[in-house]
């Protein structure tokens, strides 16, 4: 394979964009493991007291992730997120107002490999969420596993990430006065295994937990489609029925996390690596679907609202696909 190296002379802003994305990829893939090793290693050095004191703090602070976390505007508005936004670039597109007196469940599709669009739009201030939707606070759900990693849990909480379990979401959705937008990558980790360039399928056909959650709290549903999310990485072909997909599905069922074999470019060359390609991501926020509160919805009521949501997502995709290079004959499919 011929390696295509990056030019030696590049504008500083492009170098800074790559650096910002590099730290994000590192944080997503490696930082939790580094923090665990650091926590354990310190116990066997003269700095053991740091881990002991943190352990005490960790015990006291154990429930904070499931109670809204600890989002810090300062961290969310650091200049490095602007560089990350401009790397792709990422753009947040508004199609309707969201009343800040209400609470919302925002369904994000598709998951992609590393949910780059969801993080940039809803965990940072780089794309102007606060200006587009004044009065709303966004929280992105993440696998609870990562909130068991020392130090790392505090970092991701500061960015507005909370565990993807019912209790954590319910804590925000039952707050009176509204103003909370709980963002759920509905397809979750399994959907990442289908995140191939040119794929327009979402894992939604049997996903009704978020629908039930919305009805139980009277939270309005907001469909979101992120055009370009599947384009920023390549993935080894793994169609259902192959030995690779069987292994990936088994590991996902055991570990709770998916392991897509993805690749893109490197830092100083464009041929191979885990840095995403510079391809635009346009995240389109659809119109809210009003939901009446019903603490014990029937199966038929869940099915009806689930169908309304799928229809709204399909309509959103069809109305905007022409703006973002999607072929006219491409349609959204549900798996």
From TrEMBL:
It is found in: Endoplasmic reticulum membrane. GO terms for biological process: diacylglycerol biosynthetic process; response to yeast; triglyceride biosynthetic process. It comes from Clupea harengus (Atlantic herring). Its EC number is 2.3.1.-. One of its GO terms (cellular component) is endoplasmic reticulum membrane. Belongs to the diacylglycerol acyltransferase family. It comes from the Eukaryota. This is Acyltransferase.
